[in-house]
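Exercise 7b. Backbone tokens:
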């Protein structure tokens, strides 16, 4: 298996963010009743998962590989929404996540009682949710075994994918206001740069340059969190002033502090350059 380091995989994630936005817009154009926010979330998770599992020796481009994963995530989300409420889907995700965590910790399948204890709910509620989860799997088409096998991961891998997706979302939210708005509008709301330029009273070139700088800052944030180097800060890709880059990394650390990515602020603090 051809190995890619973390920086290379993070770069693939950031560079293919537009693919998620494009596919969300394509699906929503055909089915306006679907939730753009739900699809974008499912697509982002699928993109991170694809980057983690991609092997160049597959003989396909990463974009092609990721597109299949993202569309598969959309299909699963749409099939689930045909019968399950958002609350039901949330309960399924929480229950399965706890089940995976306990499996990794106990080195065996957890009992319904153990899952219920962690969730703080009754055994009957967990049993009903697991039945709903089984129903979700049964609604998939004949290609389900192949698609499920393709996305299955160990609990540790699942946690890493979940963490990276959270960091990516936090990295976008931590961008300076205008940069964040440009990224969200062009990549997730499918607005052309021309529209934003008119809204800002600016030029197409100026907005494009700010979007490119936002992408470089995102790479800096992801690289700072997941650098393979020990102790040494990765070389910055962004061209903003050191003080502004430091402020961005500190903002990213603040947004991840207290969540499930507890190690992120420590790594960011160690890697952020000292402003003059």
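Sequence design result:
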């Amino acid at each position: 298996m051809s190995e890619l380091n973390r920086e290379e995989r993070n770069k693939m994630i950031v560079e293919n963010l537009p693919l998620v936005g494009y596919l969300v817009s394509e699906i929503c154009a055909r089915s306006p009743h679907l939730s753009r926010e739900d699809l974008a979330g499912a697509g982002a998770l699928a993109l991170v998962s694809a980057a983690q599992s991609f092997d160049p020796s597959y003989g396909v481009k990463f974009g092609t590989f990721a597109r299949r994963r993202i569309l598969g995530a959309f299909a699963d989300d749409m099939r689930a929404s045909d019968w399950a409420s958002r609350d039901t889907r949330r309960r399924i995700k929480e229950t399965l996540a706890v089940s995976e965590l306990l499996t990794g910790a106990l080195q065996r399948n957890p009992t319904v009682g153990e899952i219920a204890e962690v969730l703080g709910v009754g055994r009957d509620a967990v049993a009903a949710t697991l039945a709903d989860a089984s129903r979700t799997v049964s609604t998939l088409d004949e290609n389900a075994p192949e698609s499920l096998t393709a996305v299955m991961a160990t609990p540790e891998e699942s946690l890493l994918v979940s963490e990276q997706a959270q960091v990516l979302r936090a990295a976008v939210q931590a961008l300076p206001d205008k940069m964040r708005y440009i990224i969200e509008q062009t990549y997730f709301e499918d607005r052309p740069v021309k529209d934003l330029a008119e809204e800002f009273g600016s030029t197409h070139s100026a907005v494009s340059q700010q979007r490119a700088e936002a992408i470089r800052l995102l790479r800096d944030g992801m690289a700072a969190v997941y650098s393979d180097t020990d102790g040494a800060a990765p070389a910055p890709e962004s061209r903003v002033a050191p003080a502004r880059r430091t402020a961005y990394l500190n903002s990213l650390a603040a947004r991840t502090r207290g969540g499930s990515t507890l190690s992120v602020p420590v790594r960011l603090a160690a890697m952020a350059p000292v402003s003059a």
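Instructor comment: The mean pLDDT is 72. The chain has three domains: 1-82, 84-138, 158-271.
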